[in-house]
Amino acid sequence: MLKDYIDYSGLACLSLPQEVGHDISDVVANHIMDLYSSNQPEDLGLGFISPREKQLHLALGPDFELEIDQSPSLLASSSSNSNSNPRNPSNSTTGFVCWKTSPLLVQWLLYSEICPFKTLFFLRPEKAKLKSVKSRQNRKATNTKFIDVSLDQPRITIVELGSGVSGILGSTIGTLPSTLHFIATDHQQSILKLLRSNIQQNVTGRYTSTTMETKVIPEKARSAPGSGVSAIDVVEYDWEDDSVDPVHEIKDTLLQGQFPDLIMACDTIYNEYLIPFFTDSLLRLMGGTTVAILALQLRDSDMVEAFVNCLVEKGGEAGVEVYYVKDEFLSDELKRGFVVYYLERKEVDQDAL
Ligand SMILES: C[S@@+](CC[C@H](N)C(=O)[O-])C[C@H]1O[C@@H](n2cnc3c(N)ncnc32)[C@H](O)[C@@H]1O
Questions:
Q1: pTM for this prediction
Q2: Whose C-alpha lies nearest to ligand 1, atom 11?
Q3: Quick one: which of 27, 40, 150, 160 has the fewest CB in 10 Å?
Q4: Is the pLDDT of residue 126 over 80?
């Protein structure tokens, strides 16, 4: 279970048991007050990395150099969306550019010694052997070090909500030997198209997919024990669309009937309208052992408070507990204007049954 790899000393729980007599909204209000006084947001603007450039070059830690295509013009154009929802004030174009939260999250998750989730992705590294691979198209001379998966290492399935076009999580965490399957999702075909293309141009080849063209990997190499080859997929998952069973494609088609081990989302809360849709979509995908990591940029405090209240309330009804990462366990960059939440299903007290 992923829970066994989490350092709970870095987390504080917001979902207190009812019998303690606390009003949950007071607990959340105090958390938000502490958050905005300790974690003073710098002037982060709206939160794009660049609202003008069509191409970004991002170096994430020693292992990942990404070239990301984005579309500032589609960000600015509300009419670009044939399926935009007039009730959604975001006009659904936010996904056309890359936002600041996900690069910071990746660097913290993969390279920070204080991150409470650091062993999730490089599980049991002492058993793993180091392996060198060449970076994309041999264009860069650097050799990249990955920890190769050991024969008995559990590998995890991950679903990302609201990935946007950048594919940063898919192109980094999606390629780790500890990842069995990474599924990036969003809600518009034009976003999904650019997302696929960014992942294809940034992943060096060792992956399989049923939703993207990949280099053919010989079956023998792919299924060899410890090969570390992951699957990466990009599919539609619209939080507002209740006309179809949105979980079906992800769980039943791509994950062989299993819920994902981990759900991730970066900067998916930026207006109040989306809060209940996002929360329901997240909880719907959480099976008994699924955990979730959500990273947010601190914008309007009322909106963040409304989101956390919704998460704690709806989560409580679904048996899911909400934690936040304590300030001292965040990277210096995340401490300046970001927050990370962690969700898991409550342990059932067997004695009480
Ligand atoms: C602020 S952007 C963040 C994108 C990306 N996670 C990043 O950090 O660059 C919010 C994302 O939520 C997605 N989104 C908005 N409404 C959605 C919906 N109803 N269903 C699924 N995704 C949605 C947008 O398309 C966009 O990709």
A1: 0.88
A2: 162
A3: 40
A4: no
CB contact set of 6 (below 8 Å; sequence gap of 6+): 116, 117, 120, 291, 342
Per the CB < 8 A criterion, the answer to whether 234 and 202 are in contact is: no
Q: Which of 49, 100, 104, 187 to mutate to test the pocket of ligand 1 (most atoms within 8 A of CB)?
A: 187
135-149: per-residue pLDDT in tens?
333 433 333 444 444
* Res 351: pLDDT: 63
Q: What is the pLDDT of residue 133?
A: 36
Nearest alpha carbon to residue 277 among 241, 330, 231:
241
For the chain, the residue count is 353
**C-alpha dihedral over 120, 177, 197, 202, to 10 degrees?**
100
Q: Ligand 1: residues within 6 Å at CB?
A: 92, 94-95, 98-99, 101-102, 162-164, 166, 186-187, 191, 238-240, 266-268, 270, 274, 277
Cα→Cα distances 125→122, 144, 158, 318, Å: 6, 16, 19, 34
pLDDT, mean of residues 300-327:
96
User: In a 3-state reduction of DSSP, which class is residue 179?
Assistant: strand
Cα 62 to Cα 65, 125, 182: the distances in Å are: 8, 17, 21
Q: Alpha carbon of 272 to those of 152, 188, 277, 302: distances in Å?
A: 44, 20, 10, 9
Domains and CATH numbers, the chain: 2-126+146-352 (3.40.50.150)
Q: Which of 88-92, 233-237, 313-317 has the lowest mean pLDDT?
A: 88-92
